[in-house]
Amino acid sequence: MTAQLTTAQIEIRDLHKAFGDLEVLKGIDMTVERGEVVCVIGPSGSGKSTLLRCVNLLEEPTSGTVVVAGSEVTDPDVDIDRVRRRIGMVFQSFNLFPHLTAMENLTIAQRRVLRRDKEEAARIARANLKRVGLSDKETAYPAQLSGGQQQRVAIARALSMDPELMLFDEPTSALDPELVGDVLAVMRSLAQEGMTMLVVTHEMSFAREVADRVVFMDGGVIVEEGPPASVVGAPEHERTRTFLARVLDPAAAPLRTEEAEEAPPGTGTVRKDG
Ligand SMILES: Nc1ncnc2c1ncn2[C@@H]1O[C@H](COP(=O)(O)OP(=O)(O)O)[C@@H](O)[C@H]1O
Ligand SMILES: [Mg+2]
To answer: Where is this protein found (predicted)?
Structure first.
């Protein structure tokens, strides 16, 4: 069924996802209304990325329904490419084409997927580079940009496709700390412009200031959700309190134990900025 089922931009009902025997999402219900900013927080391995990836079918849910902008993406007959075009996604790793300039990174999908002509694609690209504060970097290659600048190019690239909603998966986690603020500022202004945003982040100050709602996930379930002042400011559940204590004081106990164990020696979780 592809009829308008809801006015929500994202509606997730009883979503389950397993990888073999590993049950990663154990019945997620979530709604994101048009213009709403929802931040998802939770420990490494709790299923946050899998949840986002189920929204645009980078992962196929095991069961449950996901409706995005009125289209049920879990309908086997859905035109998923058409739905994906309406969803902008920004990952931790920026995924820019290294052999293309910032401008070319922004125009290539506009031309190939949306069939825009060269001039229109360039005009839209320029407007979006300006939006993220990088008008002077049109001709720069990714290697000539800092990590923060690359991530802002990645956001501008997503915006150039005129998405109806944006998914962010830990967009600042790979950045050196001094570069995080510029990326968050771009996200904050997007939120103020009314973009619908589902954001996985460990940036609690961003969640507190920008999110309409915060969702705390642990072990493949939503433990609690509500306004940031409640979930981050005065959490009800012990698991939420434990998590927040670790995020706010990482020295007290490592938050990302799983990732630290998985990473090859010397790679760390913080990307060097080039
Ligand atoms: N493609 C996959 N195949 C097998 N297991 C996976 C896959 N993707 C994620 N997982 C596992 O699912 C769990 C949740 O992962 P993820 O959604 O990335 O969590 P988070 O983003 O909260 O850190 C982890 O145990 C992870 O190892
Ligand atoms: Mg993740």
So the answer is: Cell membrane
